[in-house]
Amino acid sequence: MPKTGKVLCIDFDGTIVTHTAMNKEVLPHYVGSLKPKAAETIRKFKEDGFTIIIQSGRLHPNWNQVEEQTKLIKTFLKKNKIPYDGLISKHPTAAIFIDDKSLFHEDWKVIYKEVKKRCR
Q1: End-to-end C-alpha distance for the chain, whole angstroms
Q2: Is there a contact between 44 and 6 (Cβ–Cβ < 8 Å)?
Q3: Which backbone phi and psi does 42 adopt, to 5 degrees?
Q4: How many whole angstroms separate alpha carbon 95 and alpha carbon 66?
Q5: Domains in the chain, please, with CATH?
Q6: Helix, strand, or coil here: 55?
Q7: pLDDT tens digit sequence for 22-48
Q8: Is the pTM of this model over 0.70?
């Protein structure tokens, strides 16, 4: 994983997809709906030369379901043609974090413009 350059860390639940109930009964079998323009914008970031890291608490070892959750997320990303360079459970070194708890806006066009402005 790159340590410098144009690296975006994008949260999965609540950012790329609608939030899910974070409990061990529902989570292993469910991914929320793709948020409008998320896939299109992430593809655009990739075309612009960004390294895309998808971050999810689902992948934290304490869930004891890392393998199943990794497969679930990878299948979702592939189905929706969302490019990525890595999946992680914790935030790496990145230029910007796109997360429902940091740089976030419901409109992915606004997110794209803000990232482009900050990463000149």
Answers
A1: 22
A2: no
A3: -65, -40
A4: 26
A5: 7-118 (3.40.50.1000)
A6: strand
A7: 555 555 667 888 999 999 999 999 999
A8: yes
